[in-house]
Amino acid sequence: MTAQTHSFREPKDSEPAGTIATQNRRLVTQHFAFRIVWGIVNILLAIACIFALYASVWEYSTKRYLTGFSNAIVPTSSSDEDKIMAILSWMNFGPTRLPYNLADKSHDRDPTDTLNYDALLKVCGTATNAFINLAETSHLKVRRLLLLDENQITKHVVAEVLVDRRWIIVDPAYRVIFRDRNGLTVTSKDLLAAETFRDVTSGIRNYLPEYSFENTAHVRVNAVPFVGRPVSLVLNRMLPGWEASTFVSLVVERESLADEVTAILLVIFLLLLRFNLRWYAERRLKFSPVHLRDRAKFAWNAFIRTPG
After folding, report:
1. Per the CB 3.0–4.6 Å rule, which of 56, 111, 137, 142 could disulfide with 133?
2. Is 158 helix (H, G, I), strand (E, B) or coil?
3. 11 Cβ contact partners less than 8 Å away, ≥ 6 residues apart
4. pLDDT tens digits along 1-31
């Protein structure tokens, strides 16, 4: 990137010429290094903007696809519980679906796949993925809930849906809303009681007793190698309760939205980095990089504006 420099000077009579020459050489090196870093940041920013545009178009396309899907199977005027049952019924008795190789997990968080492959709708993680995406486009507040063992490994995945101000448990893999002996919906806190857990799960065919609710989480950031724990600590300090957000669950469960959020955050980070680089150059190096608006004005005058 070209830039304007203002920091080189001729030695005065009272100053050793060698000292000033050394300072000027140092400034030349600093300016050259800055040009390289400045150029790299601008290239990365351009790539991030393209990535953000692509991810936004992908998310828009996915959202439209899911909206059409939910409109076809979920009655818009029905109650929240009826909407849940409509989604579970479609998952259980829907049309013949495509075969899927379970060894291929490249798109397990893409709802356009999880909604259309029978094998994915039988696995707790991908079944919950399909349910959450359909429920969200059906105007339900929904989030995932991970059931963990003593080693903090996920043993089962269910969904929580906000109905009448309570986060009731829905198990998309078993296609059921959890209810007690009186037919009332239950929450994860209710299921901490052993008697309630037995009452609820005894009527669910082949439900494994180890899928208990003593140890749960919404997102397992700590499981990410190296950066998971520091990121979790920062988020917990800055945004208490962030893990329980329905938006966070949706980001985890929708690949296109995750890419869009990542791209936007990357663009913001690079813009801030670019701003700080400019500040450093102008204040410390006495070095003024050419503004993008000046480049745009020059390009307009050179290629578009009619002479005279």
Report:
1. 111
2. strand
3. 17, 19, 20, 21
4. 444 444 444 445 555 545 555 655 666 676 7
